[in-house]
Amino acid sequence: QAQLVESGGGSVQVGGSLRLSCRASGLTFGSFRLGWYRQSPGKSREMVAQTYAGRYIEYADSVKGRFTLSKDDAQTAIYLEMHSLKPEDTAVYFCTIAGYWGQGTQVTVSS
């Protein structure tokens, strides 16, 4: 059974940075879709960044130029570097790999 464990969330001020990590066990990346989604209260879950086997990385327009998705095949981990954070980035962030989902990590950006 695959398991994804996220870490790195927290509270920061506007303009700050965070790095989210997601470590997978029980699977290898292969050519699976992997990425990060987020969900704010009262809103549906939205794609933040995703890639298929690292060939092309798709970013939501709202995070382009500020967020960077990366992966480490050897560690079966993916990361989300977030810079210039805004209050509207506040959400629970979920990693997903091959259809599996992590439990989510809270990111709060305050002004």
| C-alpha Rg (nearest Å) | 13 Å
End-to-end distance, in Å? 41 Å
Average of the residue pLDDT scores: 93
Helix content: under 10%
Structural class: mainly beta
Number of helices: 0
Order of helices and strands: EEEEEEEEEEE
Shape: globular
Described by strand count, sense and barrel closure, the largest sheet is:
7 strands, mixed
Please state roughly what percent of the residues sit in beta strands, choosing from under 5%, 5-15%, 15-25%, 25-35%, 35-45% or over 45%: over 45%
List low-pLDDT spans. Answer: none
Strand and helix layout:
Blueprint: E1 3-7, E2 10-13, E3 18-25, E4 33-39, E5 46-52, E6 57-59, E7 67-72, E8 77-82, E9 91-97, E10 100-101, E11 105-110
Could you please describe the fold and organization of this structure?
By secondary structure, this protein is an all-beta fold. 0% of the residues lie in helices and 55% in strands. It has strands at 3-7, 10-13, 18-25, 33-39, 46-52, 57-59, 67-72, 77-82, 91-97, 100-101, 105-110. It starts with a strand and ends with a strand.
